[in-house]
Every structure is written in C-alpha cells, then in structure tokens.
Write a structure and sequence with these properties.
Layout: H1 3-29, H2 36-43, H3 47-53, H4 57-81, H5 86-103, H6 105-116, H7 125-151, H8 160-185, H9 191-206
Length: 209
C-alpha cells in the first residue's frame, strides 16, 4: 500500500471515529448541550483534531445526517431493484422507513429539520453539494418504484416526481409532527405506529382503482 492510500484510509477511519463519537454524545446530551470538546473526549482525540475534519458542531451534525441519508438511499435502491411486485415494494419501503427511524431517530429528525430549515444557508458548499446529491439519490429510487407502478398500470397516472415527493414528505411530516407532540405532551412514542398507518393509507391513494 502506498503512502497516499494509507493516509487516505487513515483519514477515513479518523472521520468515522469522530462521527461515531458525535452520535453518542448528541444522543446523550442533545445537539444544543453537546460540545466539540465532549465529542473529542469521546473519540479520544484533541479538540484541535476535530476542527481539522469539521469546522464546527453544525457541520459535524450535518455530516451525520448526510451519512444517514446515503444509507436510506442505498436501502431504497435495494427495494427498487428487487424482483417483486410494486405492492410488495411499497410495503417494504414503508418498513425501511420505520426501521431507519427506530435505528437513528435523533439523526433522522435532524435530517428532516436540515432539509427544511434555515441551517441550509449556513452549510459549506461541499456539504451543500453532498446533501443535494444524497437527497436526489433517495428521491430517484422512490421515483423508480412509483414509475414502475405507473407503467404497469398499478398506480395512478400522475407525475412520478410529484408522487415521490409526496412519499418523502409523508415520511418527514409524520416523523416531525408526531415526535413534536411526544415532546410537548410527554406522551409515548407513537411515530412507528403512525408511520405504518400513514403509508398504508398512502398506498391506497397511490393505487389505481
């Protein structure tokens, strides 16, 4: 292995180490209370090392969201490429969305806030481009599923991009709204059950009758 390749791998490993530590600290203390110093301590690195990779806490948190979005896009692509009916694909897509929420609720909620909030204006050009690319990848995969359904005469004949947007906005809307109700009213977490109901209803609306 050459020097360049070794340094590249070391840099990727260090970045993953920082992101894993950040996820733990953010989950424990929340975004507002967490500090770069605490994240550095969790990663067993100096604070100065963190700033080599991420210029501030916002950029670090955003990078976690982009990584999760990349994971979601890969999972949706796997669903789109399966040799099963569109009906099964829509059910599997629903299950993937629920699974992602269960695995990384805090990062997912931050991702949805990020996609719709003022934070977008403060992102570096590089992070903004990453967010655009990963968002487009996820939406293209959803579009592929609904386009297949339209072509087969299973789903309503509407613009597939609009239908993909509706699917994604249903996901983000339910997660953000139901989670905010839980925080305001100190209720149990009903996001998973509400997501299931929402996508079962959405599938009925998408299908041609």
């Amino acid at each position: 292995m050459g020097i360049y390749e070794r340094k590249r791998r070391e840099r990727e490993q260090r970045r993953s180490q920082i992101l894993e530590a950040a996820k733990k600290v953010f989950s424990l203390k929340g975004f507002n209370s967490a500090t770069m110093e605490e994240i550095a301590g969790e990663a067993e690195l100096s604070p100065g090392t963190l700033y080599i990779y991420f210029k501030n806490k916002e950029e670090l948190h955003t990078s976690l969201s982009i990584d999760l979005l990349e994971h979601i896009g890969n999972r949706i692509n796997q669903v789109a490429e399966r040799n099963v009916s569109v009906d099964v694909k829509l059910d599997t897509l629903r299950d993937v969305f629920i699974e992602v929420y269960e695995d990384d609720a805090m990062i997912l909620i931050n991702l949805f806030h990020l996609q719709s909030g003022e934070v977008l204006k403060n992102l570096s050009e590089d992070l903004m481009n990453q967010l655009k690319e990963t968002s487009a990848k996820a939406l293209r995969a959803i579009k592929a599923i609904v386009s297949e359904g339209i072509d087969q005469g299973v789903l309503i004949d509407e613009h597939p991009v609009a239908l993909a947007d509706i699917v994604w906005s249903t996901y983000s809307g339910v997660v953000l709204w139901v989670d905010s109700k839980r925080l305001l009213n100190d209720q149990k977490d009903f996001v998973k059950s509400t997501l299931k109901q929402a996508f079962d209803i959405l599938k009925v609306g998408l299908k041609k009758h």
